[in-house]
């Protein structure tokens, strides 16, 4: 169960169903309240109409016995100013919700005069609402209340309306008339029943549709997952996940996954080639050194000490280059020290024959970074330039806006345009430099490019003015005077 609820499909279905359920409950409640309000308003209007019809008869002096009190079997009461019931519907047996609970009118004594000192007309008397009415006038205000009544043995709920009327002979009277609420109760109950039956069915449909739609939408994701699991199990990075033709987020996910697999495959291939090339490069000096040591062990007089030292130094340099590349691949951040490129160029050029240093522009040319790594870049560029130069190598240092530029130029054959990016690949040596003795292992320029990139700069090669190769190192410069 927990595994099922943990799926995106189940959560989406449950979430959609809950949202629709809340919306249906809110909408159903609003509909029921609105329906009830409208039906109660309609019942109140009907009750007021019945009360005003009776009030109209009273206003023109119709006697109580001739009033239309039993029309449509609706309860009607007529109450005087003292709260006494003076007339009511004939079959009224019980009533509540009006100002008087009596159902039988009291006998009215014959008037012999103004015993209580009141005027029989009562034209200026005020009802409970404060309305002042003239004889024969019906009040404009209506009092509405809810109650119940039993007529001819049939109990029912009613909405009552009270209308005041000033009669010419009986004075101020109040007519109470009721309209049945059975239609309101029936309509509300019917609507509630429909909702109680229909809402669960609608929720079931919503849940089923959401389950099917999400399942269809997530089917490509499951295909991607299965393929990724198969790739992981087989370790075959040449495989790719299926890309659906929907051009949506899932398709973009599949495309990005394939791009990641391609990058991972290229990285693994590059790593494998690196390990193979490193093993091949290490095998030569190790084999040479072992041979010399075995010969020396058997014939000490034949020991080539200079050759053994040379092979050892070469092996040491290759190990150092491999270690530096491993650190760069691991994302090692360079130090944040200030490095004077002009001073670094003079230091690296010292003791090298045929190498000149030229600083252009005023002020210092400094950058932030690792002096050791930048020194390695310059040393590798000088080694490469001296191997290919005919007679001279020149180092120039200058500022170019916010950049510090260090250039190494030689007067050799230069680098063909087709090989100007390839020479920065690891273990790559052009045909003119295939000799391991003279051309190195092919790591110097790769290290120089990686260090430049780690320092936020670039390393490119162009044609030198003297016809050879011009290597340009561009790095973000530090503000002058800081």
Walkthrough of the structure:
The chain folds into three domains: 1-106 and 120-234, no CATH class; 249-325, Orthogonal Bundle (Helix Hairpins); 334-476, Heat Shock Protein 90. Strands 2-1-6-5-4-3 form a six-stranded antiparallel sheet. The protein has a five-stranded mixed sheet with strand order 8-10-11-13-12. A two-stranded antiparallel ribbon has the order 7-9. With 482 residues, the protein is of the alpha+beta class. Helix 4 (249-298) packs antiparallel against helix 5 (305-329). It has helices at residues 2-5, 8-59, 182-234, 249-298, 305-329, 341-349, 371-388, 436-439, 444-454; strands at 76-80, 85-88, 92-96, 143-151, 154-167, 171-180, 337-340, 355-359, 366-369, 393-400, 403-410, 458-463, 469-476. The longest helix has 53 residues, at 182-234. It is 47% helix and 19% strand. The model is unreliable at 110-128 and 432-439 (pLDDT under 50).
**Low-pLDDT segments, ≥5 res:** 110-128, 432-439
What's the story with the biggest beta sheet? 6 strands, antiparallel
- The ordered H/E elements are HHEEEEEEHHHEHEEHEEHHEE
Strand content: 15-25%
What is the helical fraction, as a range of percent? 40-55%
**SS summary, helix count:** 9
End-to-end distance, in Å?
Answer: 66 Å
Mean pLDDT: 83
